[in-house]
Amino acid sequence: MAYSLDLRKRVIEYIENGGSITEAAALFQVGRATIYRWLNRQDLKPTPGKGRQRKLDYEALETDVSENPSDRLIDRAKKFGVRPSTIHYAFKVLNIRRKKRTSLSRKRPRRTH
């Protein structure tokens, strides 16, 4: 849970004015270890989360699509070590449309009833 910048400043100000860390922890309902971390930091602003690292490199996928346009999703998934749904989602994010097979529809004769 990220504490507000205002609360962080009030806790540090309380300690700088002579209050103990244990008293500040009880008064502001913050853990002592948290207060020690705040005291050791240069800036009290919360650090942004780094997020999760992507397993699939989108640039490599785009390169692969341009070099091998006829590969299927499952082939690409095996190549990159991910599931086909991951490739499908990446295509959606990158706005890549899969090529439709028009040659099969031309080879079949039309049915007449």
TrEMBL record:
It comes from Planktothricoides sp. SpSt-374. PANTHER family: TRANSPOSASE (PTHR46564:SF1). Residues 1-111 form the Transposase Synechocystis PCC domain. This is Helix-turn-helix domain-containing protein.
